[in-house]
Amino acid sequence: MNKRNFLSAVSLAVASLATGSAWADGNTFKIGLILPMTGQQATTGRQIEAAARLYMAQNGDTVAGKKIELIVKDDTSVPDVTKRVAQELVVNDKVNVLAGFGITPSALAVAPISTQSKTPQVVMAAATSSITEASPYIVRTSFTLPQASVALADWAPKNGIKKVVTLVSDYGPGIDAEKFFKERLTFNGGQVLESLRVPLRGPDFAPFLQKVRDIKPDALFVFVPSGAGAAVMKQFLERGMDKAGIKLIGTGDITDDDQLNDMGDGAIGVVTSHHYSTYHPSAANKKFVDAFQKANKGLRPNFMAVGGYDGMRVIYEALKATKGNGGGDALLAAMKGQIFESPRGPMFIDAQTRDVVQNIYLRKVERKEGQLYNVEFDVIKDVKDPGKAR
Ligand code: VNL
After folding, report:
1. Which terminus has fewer CB within 10 Å in the chain: N or C?
2. pLDDT tens digit string along 335-360?
3. In angstroms, rounded to a whole number, what is the distance separating the alpha carbons of residues 306 and 343?
4. How far apart, in whole angstroms, are the C-alpha atoms of residue 228 and residue 230?
5. For ligand 1, what atom is nearest to the CA of residue 256?
6. Mutation probe of ligand 1 site: the residue of 41, 77, 101, 103 with most atoms within 8 A of C-beta
7. 231 exposed, middle or buried (CB, 10 Å; 0-12, 13-18, 19+)?
């Protein structure tokens, strides 16, 4: 479908929403959950789907008199597919909410559809700062890379790390991480010696790591998306970078709980900053982790799972608040300003920006009870996305 046909299809759908026929298909409330279930980002899809199903199992599938129907679609993390699937979900399935979005380009591809059809779009994974500005219907329950990166740039120079090389995936979140880490480190008297970018698809880290070895900084700061951290860690250790005195630091995407336990003792001591650790010491998190593992053959929930779980909560609470008969605008209004305790700690959906405000933790990989975990050792409370201030 070309753009014009698509827009008129959406307008038709909007017209039918306005006359009430779409809502008349009774007492179901449909959530279109679009995720990368196959391909390079499949772990993200698996984590979020499992978390959404856990939330429903724990909270029931009837809310405010409506039966919740979860429609999961695989977009293979190809934005053109995300867009087509979103269009079908809005026009044919008449979903009440769109949710998921494993990577930034997928979230951005759907933003115009959300705006046109007035469908709330709950971003559970993608983390480029600007995403929430792409549509007034976007609400985010994951995190932003500026939010996660700045804390580490404050920690590093106080801990003997002054000269850093950055290595990021060459797209939205990587560029945010690079920029905000560098700005803050420089402000703190440190220095970024070189900024390296690797392709998102099928990256070969070897030549980049060789370059880092030659430059010999105090530390290498890395952002790669969830699922790619283990490959970086393996090559970092194989090349003896740690033995050459180069520390590995980054946002928590690199010591992703989905993979961390298989990374081996070489990962011990790696310091990262992030909003969620499976090891987060709270009763709410313990309950979440236990239930998630029980329902998923021992799979450890990572930060993607938490974004999905909390996203479902935001949708459920909005449906309750609107007593089951609100349209897109009413649901969106009821999502704004929600404040609650997540497994990650306290969180808040800023009504102005529709973005998540949350604690950012500094963590160090340690072996605990025989397993590798990101163990939190410091916290910066209630961090807003620093990308929004400018
Ligand atoms: C993104 C950001 C994706 C952080 C990620 O994993 C991640 C994104 C799939 O915005 O594309 O860990």
Report:
1. C
2. 999 999 999 999 999 999 999 999 99
3. 7
4. 6
5. 12
6. 103
7. middle
Ligand 1 atom showing the smallest separation from residue 105 Cα? 11
**DSSP of 74-109, one letter per residue?**
E-TT-HHHHHHHHHHHHHTS--SEEEE-SSHHHHHH
Which residue's C-alpha comes closest to atom 10 of ligand 1?
126
Quote the CA–CA distance of 107 and 354 in Å, as a whole number: 14
How do residues 123-160 score in pLDDT, each as one tens digit?
999 999 999 999 999 999 999 999 999 999 999 999 99
pLDDT in tens, 357-388: 999 999 999 999 999 999 999 999 999 999 98
Structure tokens belonging to residue 287: 């309950």
Sign, CA dihedral 230-231-232-238, equals positive
Beta strands at 163-169 and 121-123: parallel, antiparallel or unpaired = unpaired
Centre of ligand 1 from the C-alpha of residue 223, in Å: 9
Q: How confident is the model at residue 10 (pLDDT cuts 50, 70, 90)?
A: low
Compute the distance from residue 62 Cα to the ligand 1 centre, in Å.
31
Atom of ligand 1 nearest to the CA of 127: 10
